[in-house]
Fold this protein.
Amino acid sequence: MMLPPALIGIGFSKRGRNGFRLWFPFVLLWPLLFVVFVVAFAIAIPLSIVVAPWGYARPVFLFVPYVWRALSATRGLEVDVAGEDGGFFVSFI
């Protein structure tokens, strides 16, 4: 089963200074995400019935699982941007 990231680390740094890094426990938002996805499914089911005559029922209905897969695929992603004046770091664990 694919799960979204549990922790998100965000860091900033400026040239000539030590930066700081914040760790946000994204796992605390999972219940909220569950409610959002249940509501989205409740909207997607009637909407897919409405657009079925035009052949768009499957993409509309599968939009919510595709978003879940994209969110879950960010696990392990690290973005580290460094420039002359400073840097920015994001990590999904």
